[in-house]
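Before going further, learn to read the protein records used in this course. A complete example follows; check for yourself that the lines match position by position.
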Amino acid sequence: MPHPYYPIYDYFTTQGADFLNKKVLDFGGNQGNLIKSSNGIIKQHDYTVLDVDLEPLNIGKQEFPNATWMHYDRFNPAYNKGGDRFLKPPITETYDIIVANSVFTHTIIEEVEELVTHLYSSLNPEGSIWFTWCNIEHLPCFKFFETSRIKQFGSCDQLPNENLAYLCDNKILDEPTTQHEYFVSFFKEDFILKTLENLQPINHKAFDPWPMDCIEIKKEIL
């Protein structure tokens, strides 16, 4: 499903990301809102998108035909119900900066650890990863989703005071099942940082009007 346009380039640059003259992988990049909102800073020949949904990839390719658009047919209980649960990202190159906007907001914690580690291996020296996530302790983030769930379903479970919570449609479940219309994952900050501690993650707090936190991971030169 194509995501409505919004300027995510501004979000990540405000958090500290630098895209100038960088080779960029937009992991879960949908129809390319990142390159579109960069207003020419990100060059098409330096821009690659992976996404589990073919429709937005085809839309993005029409607008930015000289970028690289790749289908990643991995299972997701909301966005790609028929995909492969264990498919590795089809990445054969390395990048200066990897962005994942609203991707690890829709995965279980085991996938966060697996996929972020895999993306790290695809970074050039001094490269960086930037990805959004839902902080269980940042109430405006939950309220953002709660409002729409109540509107559609009439009610919404409240988040527990735990390390993680999976909001599947309007219910909190231990794990998502194979099919949901909506699936959002929430984590405590200490918990997700501990999960990725080998990669030395740094968390940047949410700021208005964006409801999600952002984790930055740098690949230092050894």
In short: The chain has one domain: 8-133+189-218.
